[in-house]
Design goal:
Elements (H helix, E strand, L loop, with lengths): L1 H6 L13 H25 L7 H11 L8 H22 L5 H16 L9 H8 L3 H22 L13
Helix pairs in contact: 2-3, 2-7, 3-7, 4-5, 4-6, 4-7, 5-6
Length: about 170
């Protein structure tokens, strides 16, 4: 009984071949540029716009831009929905140990239901609750920063002639 269950965990084959050094370098450069733009805007606006989940968003935006998880509606919508859920849970229940995991689970459910799944955004409720952030945090840095990342991705991902981003809005 346990052996067939454990056998499922072995996987079915080998990992796919990598996309190559050129793609890896372009993805790293794109992500670095996008985060630098957000950081520079933070300095210029004298407001923090850079949050840790954005680093993971850049992995999707620049390494796998064709993924449904990297489309603009998912990046911006996912971050916004998840941060909003975090704020609502914080206001409703405070910052008890169980609130952040419950909020993260609710944010995942909301992203799925609204068709804006963006895995890095799953961290937003944790950031919101740990930092004690309110509704203003949803607008800035979350939505503002996510929009800037998507804007940079629109430029960088469309520079190569053989690439088209986004797949859809």
């Amino acid at each position: 009984m346990i052996r067939p269950f454990l056998a499922k965990m072995r996987g079915t084959g080998r990992p796919p071949a990598g996309p190559g050094l050129r793609h890896a370098a372009a993805a790293g450069l794109g992500g670095g540029v996008a985060l630098a733009v957000v950081a520079l805007l933070s300095v210029w606006a004298e407001a923090p716009l850079l949050i840790a989940p954005f680093g993971a968003s850049c992995v999707l935006l620049f390494a796998v831009p064709d993924s449904p998880l990297a489309q603009p509606r998912n990046v911006i919508g996912g971050h916004g929905v998840a941060a909003l859920v975090g704020v609502l849970f914080l206001l409703a229940f405070g910052a008890a140990w169980w609130v952040a995991p419950l909020a993260a689970g609710a944010a995942i459910a909301a992203m799925v239901a609204l068709r804006v799944v963006h895995p890095p955004a799953g961290a937003n409720p944790l950031v919101v609750i740990a930092g004690g952030h309110g509704f203003g945090f949803v607008a800035s840095p979350v939505l503002t920063g996510a929009a800037v990342l998507v804007a940079v991705a629109l430029v960088v991902n469309n520079l190569p002639r053989d690439r088209r981003y986004p797949a859809y809005w």
